[in-house]
Amino acid sequence: MDKKWFITNSMTFTFILLGLVIFLFIIVPLLKIIVTSDPQILLETALDGEVMRSIGLTLYAALITTVIGFFLGVPLAYLLARIDFRGKNLVEGLVDVPIVVPHIAAGIALLFVFGRSFAAGKAFHFIGIDFLDSMAGIVVAMLFVSVPFLINSAKEGFKKVDVRLEKVARSLGASPWQAFFKVSFPLAWRSIVSGSMMMWARGISEFAAVIILAYHPMIASTLIYERFESYGLAYAQPVAALLILICLISFILFRLMLYRGQRT
Amino acid sequence: MIQIKNLCVDLGDFLLRDINLNVEAGEYFVILGPTAAGKTVLLESLAGLYPLKSGEIWLRGNEVTRLSPERRGISIVYQDHVLFPHLSVAGNITFGLKLHRHPDQELTEVLNWLSHLLGIAHLLDRRPDTLSGGERQKVALARALSVKPEVLLLDEPLSALDPETREGVQRELRQLHNQLKITTIHVTHDFEEAVALGDRIAVLGDGCIHQTGTPDEIFRRPNSEFVARFAMTKNIFTGEVVVKDGRNAVFHTEDVELVVVTDLRGKWHASIRPEDILISYEPLHSSARNSFCGTITNISNKGAILYLTVTLPPDFICLVTRHSFEEMGLSEGKKVYITFKASAIHVF
Q1: Of A76, A84, B7, B298, which is most buried, counting CB atoms within 10 Å of its CB?
Q2: Is B213 in the same domain as B69?
Q3: Beta strands in chain A, from DSSP E residues, in sequence order
Q4: Are both B221 and B239 inside the same structural domain?
């Protein structure tokens, strides 16, 4: 498409203006919080043991969440992409529910299952896992709100894989497992990875559902919230800036990796 | 070799029902049917890739109806070839062998054998998306043959190719089959393709098999209106192409000699479309090389057009418009001349 011709079009021009507004709305607060932070204070914050622990905990918990989501979500995504059954729309709709419910309510709902006085909570307590004020609680809260991103992305990835590729593989002697691992899975891999990235990112950014189950140990968002409440904006800002920086850098790196993978 | 008994397959909006076929070992069997007649699904159900509603499939005397596809020894080549896009050509061809951890030496042998057989040795490192249609076709064939299947299923193998490539591939398929003698089931909607390749043909339509027989039986004695629609409107002859007077190619049948334009020599088929034949009462002085005198033995009225059978012998089906038909006052029993160009004859 000829760019010059395209821009002289009045509709395109209007859309560019409108697009610019929303783009600036997204980018300005993010840049401002980083730019207005004193590098000295930012460095001190980064070396603050409590901050480091909480950011480390956040990234780590989100990673574990993503791994669990991967093993439980990819099979469901594959089934939803491949098999038609009655009530499939309902299942697909329900999988999306965690995205649309208020996350504070999601946290309360989780408490009703994983709290010590409820069945699942009791069962896990029996094998030594407690969800209140623990790493397990953080993971459960993150998993609930973030796994739909992985499931949906993987599902779209599997849908794009021609079923007949699996059929050819089967006719050449592949078992259903081999057809999955040698054909469908590698071909849907990019979608699964980008879904996992989204899931990980969504896990890192979760706050409301997490604090209902586990205020302690403090994830980064909880720490920012506590510093804001107790000491004010000046103390919350550097932690917030640091978290945003880390997320931005990881995302840029991920995107680059994915882009490279696409080119080769 | 393959027996299909009372096969019934649910296709959603219609059924394939009472399909009974018996394909002999080493036979090239063609299933001919219009587009969307369920031909692909029929092949998939033979390979165990589509669930049956009822019926039985027997392979070499063993029932395989409920056997999983990887144990049947039936390979399939789809119309658009569906190569594995994440693997190289070599990776595609050796896919089936690698599943069963064959030794590297065997992989190399099979790869060598197939790449030379199909003339794709220079493509082995390429990615499928960089190949032409004809090349993809060959890779898909090589992939299907790599596991030494008992039966090869071909789903419209020629229709995704451009016309020039198609004739070449059609000849290669025939040669390949003569060489390997592998039992082949080929589905197509193209009558000429079916005649050129098939040892026998089954005509599929409206969910059932209408007729099974040799190409000759199908186009000489169609048993129903449906089969006739495929066959009757065509003039297809079996014969031999020879060179006469050192330059002209001539197609010999038992009864007639046609001047043709082709590089082929030997036993082939020739066809001419009914609308390419001119009808006159007197011999025409024209550039057309083929002119014969015959008798109108049948008139089939299709409204605005009519099909005339002109018997020399053999029978030629000719198309005339109602306007010419009435103007010329044609009727059964009249002697007419039929004239057509050498280039209007398709040799295949």
Answers
A1: B7
A2: yes
A3: none
A4: no
